[in-house]
Amino acid sequence: MRSLGTISSPHVGMKINEWNRHIQKFNVTDAEMLKAEIERDIDIMEEDQDLLIYYQSLHFVISL
């Protein structure tokens, strides 16, 4: 059950997928803006360890 003021993990997951699409299309400005939004959302997202691992894995891969 979500607390008041939390964001659902599927909503954040969709943003992560969109972020990945921007990266693949080399839309740097859009990717950077969405990444900042995702980082804010993760702070208030309902707990979902699998989604956090997905985000961290994607973040790691693009940082190589």
Structure summary, number of beta strands? 0
Strand percentage lies at under 5%
* Rg value: 12 Å
Largest sheet: none
Q: Oligomer, anyone?
A: single chain
Specify the helix fraction band: over 70%
So how many helices?
Answer: 3
What is the 3D form? globular
Extract low-pLDDT stretches: none
- Cα(first) to Cα(last) distance is 37 Å
Q: Can you give the mean pLDDT? A: 93
How are helices and strands ordered from N to C?
Answer: HHH
**Which structural class fits the helix and strand makeup?**
mainly alpha
Describe this structure in words.
The protein is 73% helix and 0% strand. The chain has 64 residues and is mainly α. The protein has a domain at 28-64. The protein starts with 8 loop residues before the first helix and ends with a helix. 8% of the residues are buried.
How do you describe this structure in short?
The chain is mainly α.
Features:
single chain, 64 residues, mainly alpha, 3 helices, globular
List the helices and strands and how they pair.
Blueprint lengths: L8 H16 L3 H17 L4 H14 L2
